[in-house]
Amino acid sequence: MNRTTISLIAGTAALAAVTGFAALSTPDAAGAGTAEAAAQQPVQRTSLLCPAPSTSDLAETSYTSFTPVTEGTGSDGKAELAAATTESAAGAKGKVKAAKPVLTPKEPGKPVTGDVSGGDAPALVGTAEGRFAPGWAVQETTQVAAGNGRGLLGINCTVPDTEFWFPGASTAPDRTDYVHLINPDDSAAVVDVELYGKDGNLKSEVGEGITVPAHGSEPILLSTLTDEPQADLTVHVNVRSGRVGAAVQALDAKSGGDWLTASTEPAGSLVLPGIPKDATAVRLIAFTPSDSDADLKVRLASPTGLITPAGNETLHIKAGMTAAVDLGDLTRGEAGSLVLTPTDTSVPVVAALKVVRGKGANQETAFIPATGPVTARATVADNAAKGTTLSLTAPGRAAQVKVTASAGSEGGTAATKTYTIKGGTTQDVELPVPAGLKGTYALTVEHVSGGAVYASRTLVAPAGGLSAFTIQTLPDDRGTVAVPDAEQDLSVLQK
Length: 495
Description:
Elements: H1 3-19, E1 39-42, E2 45-50, E3 59-66, E4 77-83, E5 101-103, E6 112-117, E7 124-130, E8 137-144, E9 151-156, E10 163-169, E11 175-182, E12 189-197, E13 200-201, E14 210-212, E15 217-221, E16 233-241, E17 245-252, E18 256-260, E19 270-275, E20 279-287, E21 294-302, E22 305-307, E23 314-317, E24 322-328, E25 336-342, E26 350-357, E27 364-369, E28 377-383, E29 388-394, E30 399-405, E31 411-413, E32 415-421, E33 425-429, E34 435-438, E35 441-450, E36 454-463, E37 466-473, E38 480-483, H2 486-494
Helix pairs in contact: 1-2
């Protein structure tokens, strides 16, 4: 028996349970007795990164942290959000000093909130461990009463990664778009930012080799990376060394603004869930990093089934070029989600929707990137008794989901409802509201049975005289990690 191999398997399984950043797979072992499935264990550590919310003196920002209760996590752990700094903050011996936490959750199952005012609020770096790690969600919501990007801006704070795609950005004269890069680690990260317009790559040396300092944040104005104004851009963030969190803040001089989060990884079929029923304009922006052109079938999952929008049945995307099409008031007063599938050969694509509500001077903007399904569970925080809409989409087979409204941040009792979503439809569901609700609450969506389910949440709130809004998608929280049973692996090796 090879003891080194046994130790490696057990140690790797333990590492997967601790980090929670990747599932573990091992080569198949010959002969009977091979473990056919790995057990799912709660992750033990999670990182989240929140971009600096606004430079406006009129900005009012709230942060809401929530962790759903998860079986098997034990009673230990902690979570906290602290300011990222662009300086090393090193002491005499070169050790980085810990920043004072701005938000410290007390217990899973109950939201905790914090508020900041003005344009000096920094980016935040957060870590959750033990019972606070599985499914940890932090919402950053900002109201700006006037000026460029006025309205409601919201974002689910993101996990660090090494690559991001943002179709839907712009360097048009009425847009001011920044890509925010946040580094959670002890060493600097090096990042390339590439821009792709309607004619392909906008070559620029300015976006190459950008250094993001340790525990630091770097906002980059996209118009400084190119001399060519582009109405529709795809931003590619590629990390050469280290890892970062990334998000695009899109500010429009006429129709407000919001955060544009990354599209799901390039895929042949995509779902963009939760177009508001009162949307007055919808624009689809898509890009393929492939060397081949992509042809997509465009359909709307409505409350009654899949509909092909007249005049926009398909979308052709040239290789390496950003394509965009106006879909108008696509939903026509009903809930809807966009479903993109290949007409023939599958080619990987990324996509996002720019959504506008209101008309004239009362317009407001939000974005819906293509997102992944809720394979097990997803959570979104900072919901209010009024102005919250949860949209659920089952583009294929019918599915059943359970939705839990948590206790309120200042009081209230959790409530749960189960829903069946018919295949090919989108439903804006009637939410369970915590009894005796005080403050805000979190919504947790769990997949129970059936086909794939995609979800998004829309918040509506008054801001500067507008009925402002923001939309967040709900990809799976990846709160568990696959860990092979060490005893089974050992028994295989002993034979």
